[in-house]
Amino acid sequence: MIYELRTYTLFPGKQGEYLKLNAEVGRKIRGDRYGKFEGGWTSEFGTLNQYVHLWSYPDLVERDRLRGELAKNDAWTKEYIPQIRPLMIAQENKILSAVTPFKPPADSGNIYELRWYRAQVGRLGEWLSLAKGVLPSREKYSRNVCYWQTEAGQLNEAVHLWVYKDLSERAAARAKALADPEWQAFLGKALPLLLNMQSVVLIPTPVSPMK
Fold first, then answer.
1. Cα dist. 14→85, 111, 197 in Å?
2. Adjacent-strand bridge partners of 33
3. Among candidates 184, 42, 166, which has minimal Cα distance to 109?
4. What is the C-alpha to C-alpha distance for residues 157 and 94, in angstroms, rounded to an integer?
5. Domains plus CATH for the chain?
6. Which value, in Å, is the radius of gyration of the alpha carbons in the chain?
7. Tens digits of per-residue pLDDT, 129-161?
8. Whether the Cβ atoms of residue 53 and residue 37 lie closer than 8 Å to each other
9. What rounded mean pLDDT belongs to the chain?
10. What's the mean pLDDT in 107-118?
11. Is residue 46 predicted with pLDDT exceeding 90?
12. Are 112 and 163 in contact (CB under 8 A)?
């Protein structure tokens, strides 16, 4: 299984129009017939006016085939794409492979935090091994959806997604984790392997499977 994380940056004031078209036109045309839609969110903190969406495919060959079929869909190319393209400033894409089990939450009413860390060249595997080892301790305080590593896009990156009921729960969970001796030991070993760390808080859209 591979995952595709796409981020669209929209012109200020155009997010509502994009989300309406996405829900009423795009989702109806595409469904899960051209890749499985795992989640869609808007940015609340971090870079604003962004729509972040996550897709899964059995493998890269099937992704290429399905995207080729989507490109032949006249409703997609002639009815949907011409309407959303003028709303966008930029598009970014990452192809990801999961390094921990993918565990979308069953409940709703959540917020999400997407974090991506760039490691020193040749050190990502070491960082991921440490992160997987300490994950049971970290999940005492926060729910993890998945850890991934980038296969295409910006390389040497770990991408991870976390679930919280609200920002207060996030703040409390992070404070508890930082006081945990196992997490402190992890940070001591893991932080020197990284070059930079980025994070964005995300709000699920009404059509997102992850609520």
1. 11, 22, 28
2. 35
3. 166
4. 10
5. 2-97 (3.30.70.100), 100-204 (3.30.70.100)
6. 18
7. 999 999 999 999 999 999 999 999 889 999 999
8. yes
9. 97
10. 97
11. no
12. yes
Report d(CA 186, CA 111) in Å as an integer: 25
- At residue 112 the predicted structure's pLDDT band, cuts being 50, 70 and 90, is very high
User: 188: Cβ–Cβ under 8 A, 6 or more apart, which residues?
Assistant: none
Two structure tokens written together for 36 = 């499985």
Report how far residue 205's alpha carbon sits from residue 143's, in angstroms, rounded to the nearest whole number: 20
**Cβ distance 96 to 148 under 8 Å?**
yes
C-alpha span between 202 and 102 (Å, rounded): 18
184 exposure class (CB count in 10 Å sphere: 0-12, 13-18, 19+)? exposed
The DSSP code sequence of 92-158 is EEEEEEESS-----SS-S-EEEEEEEEEPTT-HHHHHHHHHHHHHHHTTTSEEEEEEEEEESSSSEE
Amino acid identity at 127: W
The answer to whether 87 and 18 have CB atoms below 8 angstroms apart is: yes
Tokens of 98: 């999961």
